[in-house]
Specification:
The N and C termini lie far apart (about 45 Å). It is built from twelve helices and twelve strands. The strands form three sheets. It has an eight-stranded parallel beta sheet with strand order 4-11-10-9-8-7-6-5. The chain has a two-stranded antiparallel sheet with strand order 1-12. The protein is of the alpha/beta class. About 40% of the residues lie in helices and about 15% in strands. Its cofactor is FMN. Belongs to the FMN-dependent alpha-hydroxy acid dehydrogenase family. It comes from Acidaminobacter hydrogenoformans DSM 2784.
Length: about 350
């Protein structure tokens, strides 16, 4: 199987909402929830994709030849490339019933592990889904990052302890899921959390705690105050609040606020190894990618995941070669020209 075959299969297996567009930019599916689109006008999703295209790579091949390595270390784990799969929930509702959340997460975890990296796994109304992903991470000797929704203090702490016991090398919370009214409609409301509540939870967890859904410098400082080891700059794929800025647009100010004090990851519109390069050049240590992994799984299960990650790694390696960056640490701000406005 090759990656084009994966996409062809995905078109047969996904529907009716997602069309597996050649360019996954959020335009055809805008406002489509259920489905993969951004909320309302879809601008939160669309902007993140489009603004990444405004960042250009600075080509320079006049240098002493050197080997290129995409390896890096994140949260104490050496990974083959600075790319994690993002958590996606309710896949049967948004994509198709060919997979449910548990079978999707299992394929995602296994495929990412075989490609030398890890997945953030999702959480939802059914507790057995979270329990199942915890067991899958245990079987992979901790290669996964369980992601918990902002439920009640007691439930979050209980799930974080379960995640820690699985051997997971980090635990996350998608704090931006506080805007998912669909969960309340199913009898499991979520809500924002204070710095004090987050601090109490994080203080009782021994592994790195990551807060996903940070979109301002002030939010990043609050995450740091709460004791988080890392953040994900994310607008939840544009699915919880319409008309937000793009994630790459706010990244520099967040890096200025907390860079060097915690690990900074980013998601939103990342599709290729070139996008990964751009995010790192602007200050992130790594990225999360969401929707393309849905295509990979529906089109090729764990093999599809590996093929997609191999593609991203090859693209990242080529970008590094053509800009003179031999290591991830050498991907610096000078390697890109950013046309972003605030």
């Amino acid at each position: 199987m090759n990656y084009q075959e994966v996409l062809n299969n995905a078109k047969q297996n996904i529907g009716p909402y997602c069309k597996v567009c050649p360019e996954c930019n959020g335009i055809a599916c805008r406002g489509m929830i259920p489905g993969p689109g951004g909320k309302g006008s879809g601008l939160g999703f669309i902007r993140s994709y489009q603004d990444l295209k405004k960042v250009r790579l600075q080509m320079d091949t006049i240098y002493e030849p050197k080997a290129v390595s995409t390896e890096t270390t994140l949260f104490g784990k050496k990974v083959a490339l600075p790319v994690f799969a993002a958590p996606i929930g309710a896949v049967g509702l948004h994509y198709s019933d060919a997979y449910d959340d548990l079978s999707y997460s299992s394929a995602l975890l296994s495929g990412c592990h075989k490609a030398g990296t890890a997945a953030f796994t999702g959480d939802g109304v059914k507790d057995e889904v979270f329990q199942g992903t915890i067991e899958a991470i245990y079987e992979l000797e901790g290669w996964g990052i369980p992601t918990i929704k902002p439920w009640s203090y007691e439930e979050v702490l209980n799930k974080a302890k379960m995640a820690e016991a699985s051997g997971a090398f980090a635990v996350a919370m998608d704090i931006d899921a506080a805007g998912l009214s669909i969960l309340a409609a199913q009898g499991k409301p979520v809500a924002p959390m204070s710095v004090e509540t987050l601090s109490k939870i994080i203080a009782q967890i021994k592994v790195p705690f990551v807060l996903k859904g940070i979109m301002t410098a002030e939010g990043a400082r609050k995450a740091l105050e709460a004791g988080a080891s890392g953040i994900v700059v994310s607008n939840h794929g544009g699915r919880v609040l319409d008309e937000t800025p793009s994630t790459i647009e706010v990244l520099p100010e967040i890096v200025e606020a907390v860079g060097g004090k915690m690990t900074i990851l980013i998601d939103g519109g990342v599709r290729t190894g070139l996008d990964v390069f751009k995010a790192i050049a602007l200050g992130a240590q790594g990225v999360l990618i969401g929707r393309p992994f849905a295509y990979a799984i529906y089109g090729g299960a764990e093999e599809g995941v590996q093929l997609y990650l191999n593609k991203v790694k090859a693209e990242l390696s080529e970008a590094m070669l053509m800009t003179g960056a031999g290591t991830i640490e050498e991907i610096t701000r000078e390697k890109v020209c950013a046309k972003l406005e605030r």
